[in-house]
Design brief:
Number of strands: 3
Distance between the termini: 31 Å
Number of helices: 11
Structural class: mainly alpha
Shape: globular
Helix content: 55-70%
Radius of gyration: 18 Å
Strand content: 5-15%
Length: 251
Amino acid sequence: MIGAMTELPTPNWDLLPPLSRSFVKPLLGEYHSERTILPLFNLLLNPNSIPEVIADTRRALETLQVNPDSAKSPRVIEGYRVLKVFFTERLQYLRDNKIVVLVYGSMRYDDPVNLDYDILCVVPSHAKEFVSTLIDWMKELDHPWDSLVGYGGHLTFVGLEDIREYATEIGNGNLEFITSNCMDISMDMMGAAILITGYAGFTPDPKLCAEYRQRVLELASTNAILQASIAENLLSVLTIRQERRVRDVAT
C-alpha cells in the first residue's frame, strides 16, 4: 500500500476528464504505486486506443497460455486434474446458479515455480450472494490441493450485476459513487480480464462463458474507465508472464 502519495507523477493530470480523475486519484493515493498506476493513466488519456490494446494483448497472451491437454509441467497437469475432480463434483450447483469457472495465473501459464490455484467464478447476480460458497469451497479445495500439489491458492467471485451497476453509475456521471467504489471497480475489472483470458473448461455450459464475456465487453465499451481497467490488467499479466518466461529460459 502506498501511503501519503496524493499527486499523480505526470504533468498531464489535468487532461483527464473529471470521471477518470475521480477513479484514478483514490487508487493512486491508497492502493497503487506509480509503476502500476501509470499504464492505467496513459490508457485513460488515450481512450480511442483501448480496444486495440485489449485485442493485441489478448493475442499475445494466447501464445503463452496452456490448458490441461497442452500443459507440460507435471505439477500443473496434476493441478488441473485436482480442479477437474473438484468442479465435476459440483456440476449441478454450477448449472443451477449459472456459474462460469475460470482458471488463471500460474496454472494458465504453465508456471510450476509459482504454482497455486487461481480460480474466478462469474455469477449473473451480485458476488456478495456467494460469500458462504466461496468460504466453503476454499476450505474444501485446500486439502486435496495442498496434499497433492501444494501452495494453496485464491478463489474469487465476480458478479455481472455488479459490473452492470458500475457501468450505469459511471454512465450517469456519479462522481461520488466512482470515488467510493474505485477499488471494487478495479478488482472486478481484474475479474473481467480473467473472464476474457482464463481457461473455462470446467464450466458446464461453454456457451454461457461466451455469453458472459460478450456481456462484459459490451458493458465495458460504454465508458473508458471500465475498458481501461481491463486493458491495464491484461497488460500487467502480459508483462509478468513475459518476465517469468525469460527467467525460466535463463535457468
